[in-house]
Amino acid sequence: MTTMLEVAKRAGVSKATVSRVLSGNGYVSQDTKDRVFKAIAESGYRPNLLARNLATKKSQTLGLVVTNTLYHGVYFSELLFHAARLTEDQGRQLILADGKHSAEEERAAIQYLLDLRCDAIIIYPRFLTPDEMDDIIRNHEQPIMVLNRRLRQNGSHCVWSDQKASSQMAMEQLIQQGHRDIAFITGSLDSPTGIERLAGYKEALNSHGIAVRDELITKGKWTPATGAAGVETLLERNVSFSALVASNDDMAIGAMKQLHAKGVRVPEQVSVIGFDDVALAPYTIPALSSVKIPVTAMIEETINRLIFMLDGGEFNLQHAFPGELIMRDSVTTGPFA
Prior knowledge:
Layout: H1 4-11, H2 15-23, H3 30-43, H4 49-56, E1 61-66, H5 74-89, E2 93-98, H6 103-115, E3 120-124, H7 130-138, E4 144-147, E5 158-161, H8 163-176, E6 182-186, H9 192-207, E7 217-219, H10 224-236, E8 243-246, H11 249-261, E9 271-275, E10 289-292, H12 295-310, E11 319-321, E12 324-326
């Protein structure tokens, strides 16, 4: 393997000069830079990035921690695409670390990125509590932002959307349109988002004096198959419902397919609302109504804050992004309109 000393000899400069060229520290003439880069290209030299990061205290990287259970969904695809695009716009590289299946593994993924000397880190948590994340932020120098979770002590280090309020908004729309028997397919209930969306469903019913009926609630796991299975479960229970809210669009699409397979017309017999407003939502038949969570704007705010903090800035404000209900053809008036 080629060493920095061999590059220096090939370029006719000192090892220290090669180091300055690679780090960008100190003046080096353009002619010397050209000779060094030519020697690197000819020799196939690859610098030790970790050693360089330790020396310069900058890696030009942002780290992102996400548990792998989110990787397969459309929502994560949008999140990752915009995170990578916006990081590139800042002239930096995005490094993804898998938070896996527990708080301990999420913590290990964060430490992995810290050990790589990432300049700043974004956490999209599933298992770590707000108090645990507050401790992580307090105990590390690198700027850390938490996405989609509200923190108690470090409010300026989180960007979040009120999932409970968004769920209530969807329910309010259905209730205003005359629906009372409203079914609900949950997301995974080890997920804060899944828990909050279920809480919003229940809160909306309670605020209108409508009883929460357990037989109208079925558990899903964010996939179209579990949305279809949720409808199958509701029909097997022989409960009547004029509307259905699914905790994400993937499950809503699976639910609509299963309703169609069972001869139940959407929206004439059952109105359907999902969450996330995925790109496919306007193209389903009927077009799916959905609560749009502004993922792009949230990622942009998160990265802008990290860059601002890296430049020495400080924040003293919180930022919550509201959901927006996009009404399409999958909802019509209910029996109590």
